[in-house]
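Could you help me review a protein record that somebody else here produced? This is what I was given.
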Amino acid sequence: MYVENASAPARKPVTVPSLHAMKAEGRKIVMLTAYDASFATQVEQAGVDIALVGDSLGMVVQGHRSTLPVTLDQMVYHTAAVARGLSTTLLVTDVPFLADRDAAYALEAGARLVGEAGAAMLKIEGASPHILEAIHALTERVIPVCAHLGLTPQSVHKFGGFKIQGREHDAAERVYNEALAVQDAGADLLVLEGVPAALGERITKALKIPVIGIGAGPQCDGQVLVIYDMLGITPGKRPKFSKDFLAGRQSVSEAIAAYAADVRSGAFPAAEHSFN
């Protein structure tokens, strides 16, 4: 699952139990995307806890307008590349669009992403009945799952764009109940994206599993950003919840280290990176 990296920091590998311990102890979890071995090495050297091979690569690497065109073969390829740059950072990878359409397909995707590519955990969007069934099937077979709720990019057409979720009372209750449901189905981690900070705080306090926010407020157990957004190199307008950590610094490694330090200290995200 991990490969040797001679320049990696001297620390024990990050594991699912250690993430749960971090939540219990109140230590912030640092998560960042990576799509190749070079960026993975930078993430590893900065001591980031979790590297996420997001299907966001469809937009920031491939130039698509959404994550929907990304295939399972492409996720296997990029996950394997990132795995070669890691030693102790936990590797999480996205299950791409419709590869989780039922438990059998999810298990097939899991076999490839974990067994072939080297992921330690799979990230699955949503909480519909078939997704809950897939989470249960995977975790029953000891494949850890990171759920993803709120603004789920694979639902872009249903949402009518990349829009903040959970602002109205009924919508907030739906996201809250979905969070409880994915935890009950066996998820070990939750990424909560694009929701009001108050809802992010409520869900974080209610769940036993760690909650990683991206545009979900500062009270989450940790934070994740797309590395290209964090470095200020994504074409077009940067998301409100992001910050250019490369500005005023001399290298990518300095920027990633600054991001990790600000997440752990609570300096990031600030009020301007959150939603009401």
